[in-house]
Design goal:
Blueprint lengths: L7 H5 L9 H12 L4 H14 L1 H11 L7 H27 L5 H20 L20 E5 L4 E6 L5 E6 L4 E5 L5 E3 L5 H6 L8 H4 L4 E6 L5 E6 L4 E5 L4 E6 L6 E6 L5 E6 L3 E6 L4 E7 L5 E6 L4 E6 L3 E6 L4 E6 L5 E8 L2 E6 L4 E5 L7 E3 L6 E2 L5 E2 L15 E4 L5 E5 L4 E7 L4 E8 L3 E7 L5 E7 L16 E6 L4
Antiparallel strand pairs: 1-30, 2-3, 3-4, 4-5, 6-7, 7-8, 8-9, 10-11, 11-12, 12-13, 14-15, 15-16, 16-17, 18-19, 19-20, 20-21, 22-23, 24-25, 25-26, 26-27, 28-29, 29-30
């Protein structure tokens, strides 16, 4: 018997049966997954509990409890936790004193204290520290805690005042403990690693492999350290591991100054190519640049807002408004500005090459107050302090190469090569001199502790940019001076 093609045998055979069809096999598997009875499911859970998986699951759920909360809810939760800790601390203090105060009055005090602290941190209220600084005793003075082979050009402190960072002309970058002075060095990676991190080698041969560092800055969260120098690159380091993370090319000349915007990882840089650039260290990206200086940019500073002030040899101070891509220009009377720093969002401090320290305001193009001849007192050849000019053939001893302000306060300082660091109080429309702290050498950089309890200074035998002067008796290193507060 002959069967036609496509007959019933081929259609109804095992090959074409529904039992072997992949679609029905898949459907059968799905049904099998959901066909477990309750006893099987309970046994699986019990096995998981026996193996300890249930506890891990509960811990993961606790960790993910706040995963879906908004930014406002997170701020509220953290604020409530801070308020709870503050109340518990106040309660313990009252129990130790056996004091029965009213809880409502205590809550009012807590609210006022937290509001004042927040306003001081954001710069809305200026802390009165200058009036509390007592006259230094004869036993007080600068003591060198970290030594360098060459002149120290830049110093910085972490936000908790526990760690310090310093850089010198020989390219050495150190990370040290403020209390003990124990130091650790940042080792430069190989050229292959630098190239993989973004470094370009288009510079002339005499600057191609130079590690001379002239600028240093640390982020407010203490995660990143930025350095810059003669090689025209900005190097980013991981503070926790002291490893090189990234190299930012872009400047066409020496990187002379760096600063982080407080509370963020946004970095501002100034260079001898007369430009100011903004970078995002977290994203490892260039943000924007700002032009306007007609000569070398020597110093830069920033606070919380997306603004930066810079000074240069063109006798101008410029306020860079980064989001608006706009600038405000302030002109110095008749001198080159060597250093600058923010006092508040509307007040600035600068030092010039004629020994003058100037107070600036946002609404006036010229200085509000000039403290002239502030660094005319210098060291003579015998090491004594005189009121005469030291080495008249070299005027670098009177250059105010560094100014610093205790953040959020009215305490400021200026340093030069005349043998003193000058403390001053910032008033409404004036600068009032306080004390003179002896320190031999060129003071190229300074930083106040956030609490105002000490001041660190990076000093050396030579000036920060070049060899305009040389003091052989000075010591290259970082010095610390305690400040007595009433």
């Amino acid at each position: 018997m002959k069967y036609p093609k496509g007959g019933s045998i081929k259609r109804g055979g095992k090959k074409g049966s529904n039992d072997r069809d992949p679609f029905f096999e898949q459907e059968t598997r799905k049904r099998r997954k959901v066909s477990y009875d309750d006893e099987d499911i309970e046994s699986i859970e019990s096995d998981a509990e026996e193996n300890g998986f249930a506890e891990d699951k509960r811990e993961a759920e606790d960790e993910d409890e706040f995963a879906d909360e908004t930014a406002g809810e997170k701020r509220k939760r953290l604020a409530e936790a801070l308020l709870k800790r503050t109340r518990e601390a106040r309660q313990r203090e009252r129990e130790e004193r056996d004091d029965d105060d009213d809880d409502e009055d205590d809550d009012d005090d807590i609210v006022k204290t937290l509001m004042k602290k927040q306003q001081e941190e954001t710069g809305r209220v200026r802390r009165a520290i200058a009036s509390r600084v007592q006259e230094p005793l004869s036993s007080d003075g600068f003591s060198v805690i970290v030594k360098h082979r060459h002149s120290v050009v830049s110093v910085a402190l972490s936000d908790d005042d526990a760690r310090g960072f310093s850089a010198s002309k020989d390219g050495t970058i150190l990370h040290w403990d403020v209390s003990s002075g124990e130091k650790e060095i940042y080792k430069w990676p190989s050229d292959e690693i630098l190239k993989s991190h973004g470094m370009k080698v288009r510079e002339p041969r005499n600057k191609k492999h130079s590690r001379a560092t002239l600028a240093l800055a640390v982020s407010s969260d203490g995660r990143y350290l930025a350095t810059g120098g003669v090689d025209r690159h900005i190097h980013i380091w991981d503070v926790r591991t002291r490893e090189h993370v990234q190299a930012f090319p872009g400047h066409r000349n020496t990187v002379s100054c760096l600063c982080f915007r407080h509370g963020s990882t946004e970095l501002y840089s100034g260079s001898f190519d007369r430009s100011v650039k903004a970078w995002n260290v977290e994203d490892k990206a260039f943000v924007q640049d700002s032009f306007g200086h007609q000569d070398d940019v020597l110093a830069i500073d920033a606070l919380r807002k997306e603004r930066a002030i810079s000074v240069g040899r063109d006798r101008t101070m410029q306020l860079h408004k980064m989001p608006e891509q706009a600038r405000m220009m302030y002109r110095a009377p008749a001198s080159s500005l060597e250093s600058c720093c923010f006092i508040s969002d509307t007040e600035y401090l600068s030092g010039s090459d004629n020994g003058t320290v100037a107070l600036w305001g946002m609404l006036k193009k010229k200085p509000i107050f000039l403290l002239k001849n502030e660094h005319s007192v210098t060291i003579n050849e015998n090491g004594d302090h005189d009121n005469v000019e030291y080495n008249n053939s070299c005027t670098a001893s009177s250059w105010v190469s560094s100014v610093a302000v205790c953040r959020g306060s009215d305490l400021a300082a200026s340093g030069a090569g005349n043998g003193f660091v000058h403390l001053m109080a910032v008033e409404a429309t004036a600068l009032r001199p306080l004390f003179k702290l002896p320190l031999s050498g060129y003071v190229n950089s300074m930083a106040f502790a956030k609490s105002g309890k000490f001041l660190i200074a990076g000093a050396g035998q030579e000036t920060r940019f070049g060899r305009w002067g040389c003091l052989k008796s000075a010591q290259n290193g970082v010095a610390i001076h305690p400040l007595r507060l009433s």
